[in-house]
Design goal:
single chain; about 220 residues; mainly alpha; Four Helix Bundle (Hemerythrin (Met), subunit A); 2 domains; two-stranded antiparallel sheet; 9 helices
Amino acid sequence: MLIKQNESLKNKVIEYIYEAVLNEDYLKGEQIKEVPLSNNLKVSRAPIREELYELVSLGILEHIERRGVFVKEINNKDILDTYAAKGLLEGYLARSFAVNATEYDIYKLEKIILEMSDHANDQKTVAKLGSKFHKYYIKYATHDFLIESLGKLNKKSQLLFSRNWSKLYTMNEIKKRHEKIVSVLKTRDEKNIEECIKEHYIQTGMKIVQLNNLKG
C-alpha cells in the first residue's frame, strides 16, 4: 500500500509540473521553486525536489548550479535527438505488431484516423487521438525497459509537438501520414514497419527545427 501511495504522489507531482510547462504556465527559462509547488500541491518539499530532478533527467527542466531548476530552452540538437530516438524505439517495438496483430487491430487503427478527421478543429483531441494511435500498435511489445524509455521520450516530444502543432501539418497531411503507417502495418513486414515509423518521427523533428529557425 505504501508503494502505491508513494507512486501516486510521484505521479501527481510530475503530472502537475509537466502540465504547467505544457500549458506554458511556466515559460522557457523561468525558475520553478519548490515552496510554491509544495503549497499548491499540499505535499512536502522532498517529493517536489525528487520529481523536479526526474524532469531534469527527461530534458524538460534543467538544473543550474547555485541557482535552482529552470524550464529548459530546448535547442535544435535536442529536438532532432528526441525524435530520432523516439522513432528508433517505437519503430522497433512496432515490429511485434507484424507478428501478433489481428484484423480487428487494423480496424481500430483506421477508426482512430477517422476520429481524428471528425475532430479536425480540436487540436487537443486530435493530439490525444494521435497518441492513442501510436500506443495501439505497440500493444504487443514486451520489452519493458524500452517501453519505459519510450514513455519518457513521449513526454518531451509531446511538449515540443504541442508548441508547434498548428504550423506543422494540415489535418489532411496528418491523416495521410497515419494512413501510410497503417498501410505499412498491413504488409506485416517488420523491417518496413520499423523504417516507416522511424522516418515518421524524423520528419517531424526536422520540421520543428525548420520552424524554430524561421522564428529565429
